[in-house]
Every structure is written in C-alpha cells, then in structure tokens.
Design a protein that fits this description.
By secondary structure, this protein is an alpha+beta fold. 49% of the residues lie in helices and 16% in strands.
Length: 355
C-alpha cells in the first residue's frame, strides 16, 4: 500500500482588518465628511482632534467673550441711565416708590445716585463675568473629553462645605448688596448703626467704613448691622428748647417768634429752611420755670449750621428783652448755716463787750 504524505491544507488569503473611525468623529459633520472624501480613517481622526476640537474651543471662548461684552454693555448703559436720573424700577430705592409728597423730602442727589449706580454696576459686571466664564470653562473641559460628572459633584461638595464655613461672609455680601439696592446710606451720610455712629467714608459689599466725631475709624461688617439711622437723607428737624423761667409765657413766646422769623428772613440762611421756624409753646415745666420749644425743618446738610445760629439768636433775644435777667433773679442759691461759738454769745457783730 502506497502511503501518501498528508498535504498541508491550503490556506486562503488572510483577512484584512478594515480601519475604523471613532464614534465621535462620525458624529461630527466635518470629520465624517473628510472620511467620506478620503476614506482614510487616520486623516479623519486627525482632522477631528487637530482641527475640529480647537475650532470648537475657540468658538466657545469667542461666544463667551461676546456674551460678556454684550452684558457689560447693557449694564454700563443701565448705570448711565440710572446716574442721569431715569432709574429702572429694580434699582429705585424704596423711598422713591412712595407718593410724590413724601419723595420730595427724601430726594436722592445726582452725585449720590451716580455713586450708587457705579457700585451696583461693578457688582453686576463681576457676577456676569464669573458666570459666563465658568460655563465656558466647563464647556471647554467637555470638549477635551474630561468627565465632568465627578468634577461637578466635587465642586458641589466643596461649595457646600464652603457655604457652611463661610456663612458670615455670605451674610455680609448679601446684606451689602441689599443695602446698595435699597440705598439705605451712602458715602458722606451721617448714620447711626448702633454701637457706632459717624460719617460714612466707604460702602462695600462686605464692610462699611465710618469715622465718628472723635476721628475714630470704624470697620463694620454689613451682616452685623441690624438697624440704620440715617441723619443725612431728605430733611432734618431742628429742635431748640429755651428756658424762660417764671416770666410771662406770651411775652417770651413773642420774643422767640420774632427772633426765629429774623433768622428765616436773613439772606445768609434763607435757603437753609424748608419750612420757617415755629415756636410751639411750653414743652415742660422744671424747677427753674417753663421751657419753650422752637422747631424748624431744614435740609440734612444744613441742620447743624442752622441749629447753632438759631440757639444764638434766641439766647440773644431773651437777653435783650430782659428775660434772662429775670431767670437769674428768680433762682435761689441756698447757703450753708453759719456755725456759732457758744463762748462768744450772740454778739454777731464781734464788737463791744468790755471785759
């Protein structure tokens, strides 16, 4: 029997592996078009990572800058409009939304309005810039194939931790923003915030800087300000109480009324009165006699000048009418008892009496 050697099985041509492109490239219009034109996966992939991705990133940055520019332009226009006097409702202080009779006495001066508008505009511009570029950075990271889910989760946890740790800071910022929006006070106002009072030198989102009458500078966190007494907004009421002793009330009232009217008619002080001075009458009775009250309504910036001059005029009028002398004469000054010497007897004159 003839044995035939087993011939090796004839092998067919080895299958060729067809290169494929990534799903992301096929989903992109430009990358898929390059692949359709050239049928070269490496060229299509190269166009995706070398051309498409950078163009997308540049487009994101360009759109972000355009949006930021448009929003900043809108804010700047809003600030200019507010400074010129045409204030949108959202930026109007609460007192400017009240009826005209009350608003006339609490009008906002143009410089004050301009400073407030600039402060609010600066805050809005910073907020817009932060939000726009934060979104742009996230989109760029997404284009670079970063997994944003863990990043956003970590950012949320970090933000929550910072929120708990920085509650005081957040409170100060929010309070400062509402103080600016409501125009509770501004630079140059004389305010009382509780433990400190004085002239406001700077207003920020976090702190307010004040200088009191002794020259001490106070830095007050906005979140700690519970109530504000503003002595510089609108008008002020000057109150002067003058003692008249036990003289005739009608006589003293006529003298005080004439002196107050003379001050109101003085050209140097006529512009400092919103309403002319008014003598109200007897305010209280003391051991030294009656006290008559005189009031006047003045602009806030003229309050101290008017009250000093009004006191001087009233005091001089009472002195010229002789009422001040009557007050001094009616006062009693008790004297201590004079001790007597029993050996000297009752001889008060200290003379006579031969030994």
């Amino acid at each position: 029997m003839t044995r035939f050697a087993a011939l090796p099985a004839q092998e067919g041509p080895s299958p060729q592996v067809t290169p494929t492109v990534s799903r992301g490239c096929l989903d992109d219009v430009l990358c898929s078009q390059v692949y359709d034109w050239t049928k070269l996966p490496w060229l299509a992939e190269s166009s995706y990572y070398v051309l498409v991705k950078p163009l997308r990133i540049l487009l994101i940055i360009a759109i972000a800058m355009l949006i930021r520019f448009l929003l900043h332009r809108m804010i700047n226009r809003l600030v200019r409009t507010t400074a010129n006097g045409s204030v949108p409702t959202i930026l109007k202080p609460l007192r400017e939304r009240v009826p005209t009779a009350v608003r006339d006495a609490t009008a906002v001066f143009p410089e004050r309005r301009r400073q407030r508008a600039e402060a609010i505009g600066s805050v809005l511009r910073s907020f817009v810039t932060a939000v726009v570029f934060t979104i742009a950075i996230l989109l760029v990271l997404g284009e670079l194939s970063f997994n944003l889910a863990p990043l956003l989760a970590s950012a949320g946890i970090v933000g929550l931790a910072l929120g708990f740790g920085a509650q005081t800071l957040v409170k100060d910022l929010i309070t400062g923003l509402f103080m600016l929006l409501e125009d509770q006070y501004g630079v140059g106002d004389n305010v009382d915030v509780g433990e400190a009072s004085g002239v406001v030198e700077a207003v920020g989102l976090r702190i307010t800087t004040m200088r009191d009458a002794q020259g001490v500078v106070w830095y007050i966190r906005n979140g700690e300000i519970i109530r504000v007494g503003n002595k510089s907004q609108g008008f002020s009421v000057v109150v002067v109480d003058m003692p008249i002793g036990y003289t005739g009330v009608e006589e003293a009232t006529a003298v005080l009324r004439a002196a107050a009217a003379t001050l109101a008619e003085d050209p140097a002080y006529a512009a400092d009165f919103i309403d002319p001075p008014e003598v109200l009458g007897v305010e209280q009775i003391t051991v030294d006699g009656a006290v008559v009250r005189t009031t006047a309504k003045t602009p806030a910036e003229a309050q101290f000048r008017v009250v000093r001059e009004l006191r001087r005029r009233l005091a001089e009028a009472l002195e010229a009418a002789g009422i001040s002398a009557k007050i001094a004469a009616s006062r009693m000054f008790p004297r201590p008892p004079v001790p007597t010497d029993p050996a000297a007897g009752h001889n008060d004159a200290g003379t006579g009496g031969a030994t």
